[in-house]
Request: fold
Amino acid sequence: MVAVTENPLAATLARLAVPLPAWPVQPGPPRGAGWHRYPDLLDDAAVSALLGALDGLLRGGPALAAQTLVGRVAGPVASVLAAAVFTERRLPVVEPGGLALGRLADDHRIHPPTLALVDARMLVLPGDPAVGHPDVVVVPHPRVLEAELTAGLHRLFAPLVETVSRLGRRGRHALWQAVGDRVAVGFLLAGKHLGEPARARAEADRTLARAAKPLNLTVDWLEIEHRGRPELFKRKSVCCLYYKSAEYRDEYCTTCPLLPRDESLGRLRAYLDERDGRAQG
Reply:
């Protein structure tokens, strides 16, 4: 835990970079070129331009571009906030004007997601060292953090989902289910990092089961006994549609819901064996 003299948002994000290295989030105003304020990406013209750029690179149709856009914008935020609830018992409350995103795509490639939280209130539990820090609000129980996690994601990303669904011809339910998936992934990755995947599974199940629609979700877990201990993975609740892209034509993700469950389990066993082989070699 951090001393009260430290910035609680910066300290929390720095620690989350360890279990979630693929989704770096920096506190404060973004540095460097190519950043966009989230509210500037929400009107029809901006969304149409982003969908067009993604479709030009993926070449898999508007629904794939729509699923990819929401995944790239909302997915990392959902995972990072879920991991914060699990590992820190803290929740940054992100408002639209406090979120900035790096360049999503150019003429040549889709960029890895990069995020900046310019400003955010922080919800914490009693006894947290950040109590008394400006913009820190104390809540009585972890269930409040879990409920506000999904409620806050809905408030933040409803305008994006509505616009992308309308322009990209992808159903709202599928887009929201992908956001819910990322909540579960954030819990799971944080749980694996702490060596507590079972607790992470339970908290992800509870958080998404109690969430209001459209983020209400029954998580589909894949558990494999490997070298005497269980290995936990999360099966996607909705297909990312990358099998429609030019690069991955007719190739399905290992945890895709369109694959037979036994095939997913077989692929995961092969992955674990390969991982162990690399570690030993």
Remarks:
- The beta strands are 25-27, 36-37, 90-94, 99-101, 115-117, 120-124, 136-138, 220-226, 229-235.
- Residues 80 and 186 are 6 Å apart (CA to CA).
